[in-house]
Specification:
Strand content: 5-15%
Order of helices and strands: EHEHEHEHEHHEHEHEHHHH
Mean pLDDT: 97
Strand order of the largest sheet: 1-2-3-4-5-6-7-8
Oligomer: single chain
Number of domains: 1
CATH class: Alpha Beta
Low-confidence stretches: none
CATH topology: TIM Barrel
CATH superfamily: Aldolase class I
Number of helices: 12
Helix content: 40-55%
Number of strands: 8
Radius of gyration: 18 Å
Shape: globular
Largest sheet: 8 strands, parallel, barrel
CATH architecture: Alpha-Beta Barrel
Length: 296
């Protein structure tokens, strides 16, 4: 299926206190995104640290996000993992709770074969009636969805698109060619948002847009309108901040950045740690250079 998502989607962080989820801060973060025109919120994606959360916490976050958005923007829930039975339960539950779609990362550590990937996404597509986004991030999972494999997956019912974060533009272009007209392509890597949009991507699923949702939305709008000069200028201005967002493993820097902007995002959960002081200085420099008012 095509047409589910256009424009900018934000891979949302989950704000924590010492004892649980900070729902007041989550509400503020959601409103910040909606006010700046974000087209969809990806909640409990890998940036949201769901691997460190209890099932009760995750369900409460889904309920909160769906209720607050109330049709003002799409809510996509991350349900992927390396236990297919658990993924199917989580996906069906997300649909029951009102999600507009689900995002399913490839199984990690198990390192299944390409045939295993096809079976994994086929099983997910058969257990829900809402759009399913596959997520390819081999640097984090150890598994790569090859172009020919994604062409097979794209034929399943409810497969809406692929979030591509392989970092390999030759592979991205071949995937785009093979899935065109079957399902959509989304950038999952902020450093490659513009080139992926220009080879046919219909949206970005961005970590950077936690910080600057309006600018990321403008980039997507310019690219879709064919304003290449404007899109390049926006991409150039965002590049240093995007680089700083990944100065340590995601979501360590972006959570620090949101704290610097005045949102009570808290610290990442163990085994992740707070941003190192040297890297914090570089992140703050990038934020200030972009014109952001920081509190640090």
């Amino acid at each position: 299926m095509t047409g589910f998502l256009q424009g900018s989607a934000t891979a949302m962080i989950t704000p924590f206190t010492q004892t649980g989820v900070n729902f007041d801060a989550l509400s503020q973060l959601i409103e910040y995104q909606i006010e700046n025109g974000t087209d969809a919120l990806v909640v409990l994606g890998t940036t949201g640290e769901p691997a460190t959360m209890t099932e009760e916490e995750k369900e409460a976050v889904i309920r909160h996000a769906v209720a607050q958005c109330k049709g003002r923007t799409k809510v996509i829930i991350g349900t992927g993992g390396n236990n297919t039975a658990r993924v199917l339960r989580a996906s069906a539950r997300a649909e029951e709770l009102g999600a507009d779609g689900i995002l399913c990362v490839t199984p990690y550590y198990n390192k299944c074969t390409q045939a295993g990937l096809i079976k994994y996404y086929e099983s997910i597509s058969q257990c829900v009636h809402i759009p399913v986004i596959a997520y390819n991030v081999p640097g984090r999972t150890g598994v790569n969805i090859l172009p020919e494999t994604m062409a097979r997956i794209a034929e399943f019912d409810h497969i809406a698109g692929l979030k591509e974060a392989s970092g390999n533009m030759a592979q991205v272009m071949e995937t785009a060619r093979l899935i065109r007209g079957k399902c959509d392509l989304y950038s999952g890597e902020d450093a490659l948002n513009l080139p992926i949009l220009l080879v046919g991507g219909s949206a970005v699923i961005s970590v950077l847009s936690n910080i600057v949702p309006g600018a990321v939305k403008q980039l997507c709008t310019a690219a879709a309108a064919g304003d290449l000069a404007g899109a390049i200028a926006l991409s150039d201005s965002l590049a240093p901040l995007a680089k700083a967002c990944f100065i340590e493993v995601n979501p360590i820097p972006v959570k620090a950045a949101m704290n610097y902007l005045g949102f009570a995002s808290g610290e990442p959960r163990a085994p992740l740690t707070v941003l190192e002081s040297e890297h914090a200085a570089r992140l703050l420099e990038a934020m200030r250079s972009f014109g952001l008012e920081v509190r640090a």
